[in-house]
Amino acid sequence: MSDIVRPPKEVFNEGPFIYADILDFKNLQEIVVNERVDWLIHFSALLSAIGERNVPLAMRVNVEGVHNVMELSKQYRLRLFVPSTIGAFGPDSPRNPTPDLCVQRPRTIYGVSKVHAELLGEYYHHKFGLDFRCLRFPGVISYDTEPGGGTTDYAVQVFHDALREGKFSCYLEPDTRLPMIYITDCLRALVEMMEAPSEALKLRTYNVTAMDFTPEELFREVRKLVPELEVVYRPDGRQKIADSWPQVFDESHNQSHNHI
């Protein structure tokens, strides 16, 4: 694993951890050569809400960073995974369900950068033979880390706030349906995608999902464990983002190809 920030002790103790700046191509080359890397999983990105607050930085990290890992993977013949997102779709996309192949046209810099990554990866695959693989993940739910600035993060933050404070302020309307996946299922899908033979992949980018729900439905379940939970709905700019995203993912392509 690598990052530009100091990792928590439990992350550091789980295996090798090194400093890496996605914008420093020479540094990345040294890591690939010195560590004998053959698979590269590229998670570095500014997420939807954070990206809208700092578009120039999102352009550098999300676009220039992808260019670096594409060139690196081409040069050293790496198998490259770049995650995409429900944010790669926009208000012109079918929302329920949203298929793998349809109009996208996202309205956030995060989404635009992910469409760019999807198409660039496909181009590198056909032009240079790059073994590029991509999954469009929905909102990812986990319990052990605080949210990182995404529009679906309410589905994680509510658990922290319910246990700490017994109340939660939700930035989405109660009936805003979005697709979600738990972190262990997310990682399982990633591993299965990376292990799949390249010739078995009919597409280079697939949708993947596990469930879909609204804030109201989630809070109803949380109250079964924390009955005193108080929820106030205060929609902000993230509501407009969520309204442009898929409500339900169609993942029939990856199911029919039997690799995820």
Automatic annotation (TrEMBL):
GO terms for molecular function: L-threonine 3-dehydrogenase activity. Pathway: Amino-acid degradation; L-threonine degradation via oxydo-reductase pathway; glycine from L-threonine: step 1/2. Transmembrane segments: none annotated. It catalyses: L-threonine + NAD(+) = (2S)-2-amino-3-oxobutanoate + NADH + H(+). Catalyzes the NAD(+)-dependent oxidation of L-threonine to 2-amino-3-ketobutyrate, mediating L-threonine catabolism. It comes from the Eukaryota. This is L-threonine 3-dehydrogenase, mitochondrial. Residues 16-208 form the NAD-dependent epimerase/dehydratase domain. Its EC number is 1.1.1.103. InterPro entries: Epimerase_deHydtase, NAD(P)-bd_dom_sf, NAD(P)_epim/dehydratase. Belongs to the NAD(P)-dependent epimerase/dehydratase family. GO terms for biological process: L-threonine catabolic process.
